[in-house]
């Protein structure tokens, strides 16, 4: 099995999952090549090899699909949910192909979500080394003081590491709650909500309004559209332009 493409790449190109998720399938022993269970990531597969995941045959590469979904609140960003909750794939009727989400938005968060079967692009966009711009609008409890806003901009310690500098601006307040716009270049698990919790301003509503150059314009919650070729190219440029977070200076 030293010829052909790496198995995780073949799986990703077939629309099974992102490259990283395919690696997890392999190491978990859920993939077979020509009847033999594979657990090592260095294995390659060639055209004509019989590949199975969980006993189901894997077909050849799909036509590349790139989708922008306005994820509504109240659904999970996975292909299946053991609790039976609605998933983002439930909104993609008529797509005509298999895709997987690029990163995640949590159950109660809405907004821009990219889905694709292009494992290479997905891997670039999700790699922690790179920082595609993500813009969120958050409604938070109370009215954060200037010092609190600066603390958020400078970085919050989460899981033993400080978040990268970000942009935070106030859109409006009624005294009981405040609308913020927050621009990040990283994507830790539930990062915005955890940052706001850490400064004692609970997030009441959260929407990702921009991812790279992609916005929600023309979409309503639960609706989707195919990305244009120039938009796909823009995502590639955004990922390629990323730099390690440690090399970033504070955003101006």
Tell me what the structure shows.
This protein is of the alpha+beta class and 252 residues long. The protein has three domains: 5-57, Structural Genomics Hypothetical 15.5 Kd Protein In mrcA-pckA Intergenic Region, Chain A; 66-128 and 214-243, 2-Layer Sandwich (Alpha-Beta Plaits), CATH 3.30.70; 134-211, Alpha-Beta Plaits, CATH 3.30.70.1560. Helix content is 21%, strand content 28%. It contains six helices and 17 strands. It has helices at 7-13, 19-27, 119-126, 146-154, 191-198, 229-240, and strands spanning 5-6, 31-33, 36-38, 44-45, 51-53, 56-57, 66-71, 100-101, 110-116, 134-141, 157-158, 161-162, 167-173, 177-184, 203-211, 214-215, 224-226. Strands 7, 8, 9, 10, 13, 14, 15, 16 and 17 form a nine-stranded mixed β-sheet that branches. Strands 3-2-5-6 form a four-stranded antiparallel β-sheet. A hairpin with a 2-residue loop joins strand 11 and strand 12 (161-162). Helix 1 crosses helix 2 (19-27). The longest helix has 12 residues, at 229-240. It is elongated. The termini are far apart. Mean pLDDT is 87; it is low at 243-252.
Gap from first CA to last CA? 51 Å
What is the residue-mean pLDDT, rounded to a whole number? 87
CATH topology label of the largest domain: Alpha-Beta Plaits
- Report the total helices: 6
Order of helices and strands: EHHEEEEEEEEHEHEEEEHEEEH
What would the principal axes of the Cα set say about the shape?
A: elongated
Query: CATH-wise, what's the superfamily of the largest domain?
Result: Pseudouridine synthase I, catalytic domain, N-terminal subdomain
The structural domain count equals 3
């Amino acid at each position: 099995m030293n010829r052909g493409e790496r198995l995780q790449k073949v799986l990703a190109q077939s629309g099974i999952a992102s490259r990283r998720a395919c690696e997890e399938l392999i190491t978990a022993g859920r993939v077979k090549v020509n009847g033999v269970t594979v657990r090592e990531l260095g294995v390659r597969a060639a055209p004509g090899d019989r590949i199975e995941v969980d006993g189901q045959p894997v077909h050849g590469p799909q036509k590349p699909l790139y989708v922008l979904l306005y994820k509504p609140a109240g659904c999970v960003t996975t292909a299946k949910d053991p609790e039976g909750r609605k998933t983002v794939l439930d909104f993609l009727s008529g797509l005509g192909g298999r895709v997987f989400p690029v990163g995640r938005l949590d159950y109660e968060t809405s907004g821009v979500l990219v889905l694709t079967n292009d494992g290479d692009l997905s891997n670039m966009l999700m790699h922690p080394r790179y920082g595609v711009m993500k813009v969120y609008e958050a409604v938070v409890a109370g009215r954060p003081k200037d010092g609190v806003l600066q603390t958020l901009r400078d970085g919050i310690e989460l899981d033993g590491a400080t978040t990268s500098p970000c942009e935070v601006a106030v859109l409006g307040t009624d005294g009981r709650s405040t609308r913020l716009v927050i621009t990040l270049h990283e994507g830790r698990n539930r990062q915005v909500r955890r940052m706001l919790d850490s400064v004692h301003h609970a997030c009441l509503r959260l929407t990702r309004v921009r991812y790279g150059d992609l916005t929600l314009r023309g979409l309503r919650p639960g609706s989707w559209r195919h990305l244009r070729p120039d938009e796909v190219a823009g995502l590639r440029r955004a990922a390629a332009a990323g730099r390690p977070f440690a090399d970033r200076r504070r955003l101006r």
